[in-house]
Amino acid sequence: MKSVVAVLVGASMLFGAAGAALASDNYPEKGRTLQLVTPFPPGGATDLLARVLAQKFSEAWGIPAIVDNKAGGDMLIGSQAIANAKRDGYTLGFTTSGFVLNGIARAQRVDPLTDFVPIGLVGRSAQVVAVNASAPYSTYKELEAASSAQPEKFSYASCCPGMHFAAEMLKSATNLRALHVPYKGSTPAVNAILGGETTFIIDTQTAVKPFVESGKLRALMVTSRQRASTMPDVPSLNEAGVPGQFETEVWWGLVFPAGVSPAIVAKANDTLNRILQSPEIRKRMAEMSIEPTASTPSEMARLMRTDFDRYSKLAKDANLSFGN
């Protein structure tokens, strides 16, 4: 009897593996639709880049691809939608470094390190601290001094955990004082600073740079220790007088929900990296001040783990609080 059971179990495993291999061989199937879920509203940097990628995946695979914006809850709504999606390879998540930092900043129902399978990185960019062009602050030190003197009059807009984290790190390292005002994406966050609802903003170069160039916002610094090549006239953290070694950046990447077969992950990664080599894509990303960053799934997984461990330690050492 035991031998019969062993044979049946072995056969089941064999046919299961064969079925998974056949499914990956046929992937992507004609007639299916690729859904690219992003935890941000339309109009921001992540949404714009998601739409470019969806178009290129559609062209490469010969199937329709749509972008599904699921904003809210500091990326939690979109992250949960990705984590709970079918494991068939037709739902991808387009997310940022912020969803890893979310696991540090607050309790959540998804684990960024275990509930997702990385496909690969897409790009990277330093963040920008900016004020309304009509504000009386020309440097970060001026903003810092004014907010320290009258903290109740200062607030900042952020669209997601990455920007919130950067602001709290600055508050910890300097005398900057301001109330956190969260928004559901870069577009409403930028609209808030343009409309005078908040004193300053920390966001991506993609979101902020066009308004700096049009004279509506004034960039005080980028959140890297060296100047950004895409905004060479803007001071770095060192030049702005921010002590310490920390620096923050935004990275973008594609993920599947955990459980998608390695063969499907490999196919998606190969397609993504070929897309990132396209001169058209590289030109579009340069216009968005994003550096194309191809990677393997394991390289993205290591970055996620490194970020989680590094920022967890920074938050603990600085005794950071992620309330308002």
Automatic annotation (TrEMBL):
Matches recorded under Gene3D superfamilies: Bordetella uptake gene, domain 1 (3.40.190.150), Periplasmic binding protein-like II (3.40.190.10)
Highest taxon of the lineage: Bacteria
Signal peptide: 1-23
Entry keywords, A to Z: Receptor, Signal
Classification via PANTHER family: BLR1237 PROTEIN, TRICARBOXYLATE-BINDING PROTEIN
Family assignment from sequence similarity: Belongs to the UPF0065 (bug) family.
Protein name: Tripartite-type tricarboxylate transporter receptor subunit TctC
Native source organism of the sequence: Pseudorhodoferax soli
